TrEMBL record:
Protein name stated in the entry: Uncharacterized protein
The organism of origin for this protein: marine sediment metagenome
Length: 55
């Protein structure tokens, strides 16, 4: 399994925290985050959906 951290920035793009890529996906789904850059890695779900991993 892919084991990486995603950087979280605040509104002025300064560093806030780093979270797991799973937490980053949850923040995106909840509408609490947006992606500035993705990694080159994509994961396939059980439903054959490809998910890009935020950087």
């Amino acid at each position: 399994m892919y084991n990486a951290r995603t950087i979280v920035l605040n509104g002025d793009y300064s560093y806030l925290n780093s979270v797991s890529w799973q937490k980053a996906i949850r923040l995106l789904v909840k509408g609490k985050a947006s992606v500035l850059k993705y990694t080159e890695i994509s994961l396939k779900t059980a439903e054959n959906v490809m998910i890009k991993i935020p950087a």
